[in-house]
Amino acid sequence: MALKYVVKKTTFGFDKEKAEKYVARPFNVVTVDFKMLCDQVTKVGFVPRGTVKSVLDGLIDSLITYMEIGASVSLGEFGTFRPSFGCKSQDDEKEVTTETLKNRKIIFTPGSLFKGMIKSISIQKLDSSKTSSSATPDNGNGGSGEGGNEGGGEAPDPAA
């Protein structure tokens, strides 16, 4: 298996010339939804699907409970989740208020297993002549933003 990328022409707006250059963009073949993930864990872990779903639902609820109080949650070698936000800078300390906070987000820091995987996985250029017009590269936010599969079809079975 390998990560795939496509080459896209991009206009850079940070320079005066609005230079157009070519850059590699990750190609997300498919988005694995919660049902598909539960099914895969069931196959790999030999645990009933209902149990997998219950455990994952409980994990999500617990993550929310702890992050709502501002805690970082470590899941061992899986990684760590922590709540965060940005803030507009102010000239005076008293001007920093909740109204100046922006971009609330959850930051995931991968653990050693994921860090090792991403460092060692191969990367291949995707032949643009073989991609369909409906397939689009990942735009950096984890998918197309349309909620659909980006290359069509089902996710490959990692156990196969």
From TrEMBL:
Domain HU residues, every copy: 1-125
For this protein, the record's Pfam families field holds: HU-HIG
UniProt region (Disordered), positions on chain = 125-160
> Which UniProt keyword terms apply here?
DNA-binding
Protein name in the entry:
DNA-binding protein
Any GO MF annotation of the entry: DNA binding
Polar residues bias: start-end ranges: 125-138
List compositional bias (Gly residues) regions by residue number: 140-154
Question: Which organism encodes this protein?
Answer: Bacteroides vicugnae
Q: Zinc-finger: is it a keyword of this entry? A: no
Q: Which residues form the signal peptide?
A: none
